[in-house]
Design a protein that fits this description.
Helix content is 26%, strand content 18%. It contains 11 helices and 13 strands. A 9-stranded mixed sheet has the order 3-4-13-12-5-6-8-7-11, with helices on both faces. The chain has a domain of 211 residues: Vaccinia Virus protein VP39 (Rossmann fold, 3-Layer(aba) Sandwich), CATH 3.40.50.150. It is an alpha/beta fold.
């Protein structure tokens, strides 16, 4: 059961707003990103959408205002926070200014990072999906290496890369085909790490059928390994065109496989998950499907409504399905059409 003081401990109800929440204004685009849209009320804060089972909820507003008012952030009890913020690339987000001056964008970034750091429990995981433009600044900030410091200096576990095909075409430089997936842990307790939930077939098994990988004694199942820190493969591409995961109104969706790997590896069933930039709702979709408690925050009321509908509908594919091999070469042993691990 959810604690009575939790951000998701609300009556099992669904409220569909006809407009922006009470207390929210719709200023010009330039001013929108600079002034938090308050959803707080005297005595607490109410989610805009709640699933029937009460496990997942969505708040509408600027995450800086919403997170500052959430009891679970104030108490620091989130098991995992996944953030995919606006990249400041002048994208046409609904009612959000995505073209801030650099200093303003960095201040905005450090503000929401501070709230996320406070919201994590000791041992909790923070994942940030971010491009080249800002990855270095975020890493240095969370490591405490800049003049401004986070509330708690975090420990970096991995600097992963999500690699996708069909990057933005250009002749002026090499085509960008990646985004950074930064993985930090809050010190003070052991962190959750479920390697067995995200194993994939090793290259030795999938390419060479190497007998050594089927008799190894490293604690992993025969022919399996923990994924490497560059993520790609089937179902890992950009969600575009006729992709079954694609949802109307979003041109920057993350693939379900990405969030499934993060949530399976770094949280447990019943754990509390937060996404301060809900967007198309992928984090909530996977968290809800995997039995986590979920809190999402989204600036746009329309995006929040679509994301909530997606959370209720569930994922396109089972998030716990075994990962396919990420090998980039075909099987090479003559006379065999599939590696031993695939043949059972």
């Amino acid at each position: 059961m959810i604690d009575a003081g939790s951000s998701v401990a609300r009556p099992a109800r669904e409220v569909i707003p006809s407009s922006m929440p009470a207390g929210t204004t719709t200023p010009s685009r330039r001013r929108t990103a600079r002034r938090p849209a308050s959803t707080t009320k005297p005595g607490g804060i109410e989610p805009t959408f709640v699933t029937g089972d009460g496990r997942s909820c969505v708040y509408v507003g600027d995450c800086r205002g919403v997170l500052a008012a959430l009891p679970d952030v104030q108490r620091g009890v989130f098991d995992l926070i996944f953030a995919d913020p606006p990249f400041n690339w002048s994208r046409a987000y609904d009612k959000w200014d995505d073209a801030m001056p650099e200093r303003e964008y960095l201040d905005f970034t450090f503000d929401w990072l501070d709230l996320c750091v406070r919201g994590l429990k000791p041992g909790g995981a923070l994942w940030v999906n971010i491009p080249d433009d800002w990855a270095g600044e975020i890493v240095c900030y969370l490591k405490g290496r800049l003049e401004r410091k986070p509330p708690t200096v975090l420990t970096m576990q991995n600097w992963c890369v999500w690699h996708y095909r069909f990057g933005q075409n250009t002749k002026a430089r090499f085509i960008n085909s990646k985004v950074h997936a930064l993985y930090f842990v809050k010190p003070g307790a052991a962190h959750t790490w479920n390697a067995e939930k995200v194993l994939e077939m090793s290259d030795r098994a999938s390419i060479y059928d190497d007998p050594r990988t089927f008799s190894k004694r490293d604690g992993m199942p025969a022919g399996k390994r923990v994924p490497m820190d560059v993520w790609y493969g089937k179902f890992w591409g950009r969600v575009q065109g006729n992709n079954k995961e694609r949802r109307h109104g979003h041109d920057n969706q993350l693939p379900e496989a990405y969030l499934a790997r993060v949530l399976l590896a770094c949280s447990n069933e019943g754990g509390l998950v937060l996404d301060p930039f809900l967007g198309s709702g992928t984090t909530g979709v996977i968290a809800h499907a995997l039995g986590r408690k979920f809190v999402g925050v989204e600036f746009s009321a329309e995006n929040a409504k679509r994301a909530f509908e997606r959370i209720k509908a569930g994922p396109i594919r089972p998030p716990e399905q075994p990962a396919a091999s990420s090998a980039i070469f075909p099987h090479r042993r003559k006379g065999r059409t599939a590696p031993r691990a695939d043949r059972g």
